[in-house]
Structure formats: structure tokens, C-alpha cells
Amino acid sequence: MKTVRLLTPANALARAAWLAALGALLTGCAATKVKPWDRDLLAQKKMQLVTHPMVNAIDEHIYFSKEGSTGGGDVGGGGCGCN
Amino acid sequence: MQLGPTGPATIRGKLGAAACMLLASVAPAVARADPSGAVTQVDGTLLLYGEQSRTKVAEPTVRVTRLQPSGRSLSGQVVLDVMTGATPTGAMPPGVVDSTAALPPDEAPRVQTMTAASGGGGGGGSEHVPGPGDIPLAQFHDTRVALDAEWHEPITNIFGSTLGGYYSREKDYESVGASGKLSLDFLHKLTTLTLGGGVNRDHVFPSGGTPLPLSDGTVLHDERNAKDVTSALVGLSRVITRRWLISVNGSRTYEDGYLTEPYKVVSLIDPATGYTTGQITEGRPSTRQRTDVMTTMVYHFTSDVLHLSHRYYWDDWGVRSNTIDLKLRHDTGDSSFLQPHLRYYNQSQADFFTFGLVQGEPVPTYATSDYRLGPLSTATVGLTYGFHVPEQPGEFTIRAEYILQFGKGHPDTAMGVQQDFDLMPPVNIGSLVAGYSVAF
User: Fold this and answer.
1) From the candidates B47, B158, B288, which should be mutated to test the interface with A, based on the most A CB atoms within 10 A?
2) To bridge B198 with a disulfide, which of A76, B212, B301, B357 should be the other Cys (CB 3.0-4.6 Å)?
């Protein structure tokens, strides 16, 4: 059967943003500008990649049980008969 | 999950017990202090989840974490899932109401009369007769208990490790797993490399026995079916500026074993009329390799914080998906915040997904009508409110979300009367999460 490629405008925009982010990630010069005494904002809980891990885990479980995809950011955790 | 009689009193009792467990675990948190400098953190959440005319879930979770001044931490978590309601069997709308009206005398009735759905396994579930254009549903109820523990150990000031273990059990599924992660900070501790791996040894033991795939439901055996899951993760996060953080994670998961949904079925269709003439059990490959790449960005504006992520996923079953997730945290005072949430998900169907098979044609090697492997989209809108009560420890959060799930329910391949039906009708879902977190 034919596999459908997803290239909607939203997805194209997301990929462009992803490539821009990857470029920034791989560019070393910017990071060295952030000195230890400049990390006040970064130290805040709201700047963590996942601010509320338990709620995030609930979301992951909901979407895992309702969609055909999984993954994103972590390994481990348990299986479930829901999907 | 297992189908069976669903007593309101039983569900009420379980929910009451769950709520008591949550409150009892969190309440004593408020009053102790430790002279060693160690901190105990207690987090509790209660999820209430409901799909319109389908599944309802209540899920309390309690997590206790002991944090040492050295950075070492040990945590344990208990989750209780109480699930009830109805779920699609995979069958198409029958097309006719009267199960015998349009049938030749030597054929079986066309209407799927679902008893003990989850595929017809034992359990004596309630009977459901769909209307001519309705997606057949099966009643079910189940309770799942999950335990997990995690130990984080900083090895040096730039190198850390995390080990985790997991166990969960429900009526027809058991999962045992372990995972490990190593993280390394470098480039002035502004970049973090994370390597991780996990293994799961799961077992599926369907109610009423394991049916033969792509059959009329003939029971193959009554034993446990193994399902092994191995996963690996590579992640890189980096501080770009004082306000900007980016992370890219890639993970690959390999599944091997019993991957079929034992209770799902595939309809057989009369090509002339579009009426269903019967159904067979579904059958899936015994391996699956999943890969995803997820990019997350966090940006601090003057006050608000933006979380934006994109995940691209693909697997060797032919499913491809894109997920975009956006959260914007807005502080409404010194001790409260609002956080709107938008998410959009879109996937292509698996190679062996079909809405139904033509009666009399050869049965393919694999086939499923599980909508979760179909051409599916999900849109989410949500709002979180978090606050501290003055003079009291801890943070409360309340989050409400609306999820709309929809698909391409009018395929070109629909035959006869099926062309008039939406084969993937939209599903409205609401969820509410209440959380409390306190350290002492």
C-alpha cells in the first residue's frame, strides 16, 4: 500500500524551524557568551525543558493510547495494554 | 483491557479509594524537616479523562522523591488507572439494522453483535448493536497499577547517571522494564549530551485466549504472549543565549513479539452493497522499528516563557507523523501563572491498514482496522493554572484540555453504502489534571 508523505504547510514550517534550531545547536560560538553569572533566567524552573514531569507523563500516556506514534525525549517507562 | 459488566458502584468505589490514596499520601507532607539538608518532595496528580460516548479514565498518581544535597536522588511512584467505557472494535458500520433482512438464507447475520467485545474474549461484556452507520463499539473495564523507581547519581560535577525500574499490571497485560541514562555536561556546562537505553519484557494474555490472526476468532492458545521492547536515546541540549535553550533528541525503539491487538477485528464487505458480511481478527507483523527526532526550544521573553517542540516519527510499518507542541507560560503574579497549550498531530496510515476487506478475496498477510494506525489527526487546546497559596507550602496546578481526534473517514475505496458513512468519525475528548507538589 502507498505510504502518504506529510508535507503540509504546517509541517514544512515545522521542519524549517527544526533545521534552524539544529543550526543554532551546532553553532558553538553563541553558547560561550553565556557566563555563569548570566544564568539567572536559565535557573528558573519554568526554563526547564519539562517543567511538570508528571503532567508530561500523563500527556505521553494519553497520546500513546490514542495515536500510532510514540517517543520523544526519554527512554524507559512501561508498556501498556492500551495500544 | 477486558470487557465485562461495569457496575457504577464498583467504579465509584475504586475512584473513592484512589482519591483517598492520593490525599493520604500528600497530606502528611507538610510538617517535617531534615537536619541533614536532604529534601523530600511529594507530587500528586489526579487525571479525569473522558471521550464522548467512549472511554472514561480516572488516574491518581503519587510520586515521592528524596533529594540529597550531593545531587543524588531516589524516587518512587505509584499509578492507579481505572478505565471503563467503550472502544471501537475496528469493524465498519454494518450498513443495515436488521441482521437478517437482506441476507441469503445460508449466510450469517451481517450486523456485528458485539458481546464481550475486546474481541469476543470471555468476560461477558454488555451487548452492543450498532445502527447502520455507526462504528461498532465494545464495552470494557479494567484497572491498571503501575510502580516505578528511579535513582539519580551524580558521578562527577559534569557526569551523571540515572537508573530506573518499572512494573505494571492489568487484567490482560503485564510490563516489566528497566532503563539507564548517562549525561555529560561540557563547553562550560552549557551543553549536555545524554545517552540512554531501556528494555521492557511485556506479556499479553488476552481474555478468552489468544485468537488466531486473520481468522474467525479461533483460539490459538491460552498462554502468555511475550513482547520485548528495546529502546535507545541520544540527546543534545544547549544554552544558546541567556534566554534561549534548545534540545534535540533522537530515539529508536525495537519491538519484537506479540504486537497484534487481540480484540480488534477487520470487517468483510459485500462489494456490491457495502454491507458487512462478517469479520475476522486482525493480524500485525511481529516486529516493529520506530524512530523519532524531537527538537525542543525554550525561550524566555521579558516575563513569559515559550516552549515549542516538533517531533518527526517514522516506523517500518509505514506510519509517519509530525507533532507540533506549543506552550506559553505567563506569570499572573508572584505566585500564579497561566499556560495555554496547543498541539497538532498528523500521521499517515500503516501499510497494512484497511477499513475493511472484500468478502471472497484473498486475505492479506497482515491487516488491521485499528483507527490508531489509520490516517489520523489530533488537535489539542488546553490551559493550565498554577498557584501557591499564601503562607502555605507547595504548588497547585489545574489543567483542562480539549482534544479533537479526526481522520480521513471517506476513503476512495469505500464501497456501496459505506460511501455514505464517516468511517473515522471525530472523537471529542476532555481531560482535567489536578496536581499538588510540595518539598519539605
Assistant:
1) B47
2) A76
